[in-house]
Amino acid sequence: MAQFETCEGGCTCGHVRYQVISEPMIVHCCHCSWCQRQSGSAFAVNALIEADRVKLISGAVEEVTVPSPSGKGQTIARCPICRVAVWSNYYMGGLKDRIRFLRVGSLDDPNLMPPDVHIFTSTKQDWVILPPKDKSAKVFYDVDATWSPESLKRLDALDAAAGIEQPWRYLRRTVE
């Protein structure tokens, strides 16, 4: 794998600008009905990355908590001026403030982070055609089989720092 170059992104009006200093652990293209409703689109593309690897370089975000399927909500970071979402944080035990779900569409070059996996395809729009070679799951997936070994090590480091054990494996069991 080539060395990751930093990249930048931000909101539509330019008030919020951020820099990403490493590649994401994984990129989800989520087709669940919640993401469809909250994004106003057919899916949401989120790059999961450690919060300390996403640096706010200008502006400020406004955090808004909205409902989520878990019932625990997600906190969406939006530009306070144009209201564009740039990332969110989900309640995941001690990882809530440690992982950003970076909105790939807010990157200056969204092509840098294509989806690694399509999730919740059981509720995707019928007219959305997935590339045949892409990984997909009707609901969620087996984390150990889907994440790269390097990304699993990064997730394990976050787990250890938060003092929790394998939250993604727990999440997978709760959504199936």
Written account of the structure:
The protein has helices spanning 33-39, 143-146, 149-162, 167-175; strands spanning 7-10, 17-20, 26-30, 44-50, 54-58, 62-66, 74-78, 85-90, 99-103, 117-119, 135-136. It is α+β, with helices and mostly antiparallel strands. The protein has a single domain (7-175), classed as glutathione-dependent formaldehyde- activating enzyme (gfa) (Alpha-Beta Complex), CATH 3.90.1590. The strands form 2 sheets. An 8-stranded mixed beta sheet has the order 6-7-8-9-4-3-10-11. Strands 1-2-5 form a 3-stranded antiparallel beta sheet, with no helix packed on it.
Brief write-up:
The chain has a single domain, classed as glutathione-dependent formaldehyde- activating enzyme (gfa).
- The figure for the number of domains is 1
Q: Note poorly predicted spans.
A: 172-176
Q: How large is the radius of gyration?
A: 16 Å
> Could you say what the CATH architecture is?
Alpha-Beta Complex
Q: What is the tally of helical segments?
A: 4
Q: What is the makeup of the main sheet?
A: 8 strands, mixed
Beta strand %: 25-35%
Structure classification: alpha+beta
Could you tell me the CATH topology label.
glutathione-dependent formaldehyde- activating enzyme (gfa)
Tally the beta strands: 11
What is the general shape? globular
| Fraction of residues in H or I helices | 10-25%
Give me the CATH superfamily: glutathione-dependent formaldehyde- activating enzyme (gfa)
Mean pLDDT: 88
Class, according to the CATH hierarchy?
Alpha Beta
Cross-sheet strand order for the largest sheet? 6-7-8-9-4-3-10-11
- Compressed to H and E, one letter per element, the order equals EEEHEEEEEEEEHHH
| End-to-end separation | 33 Å
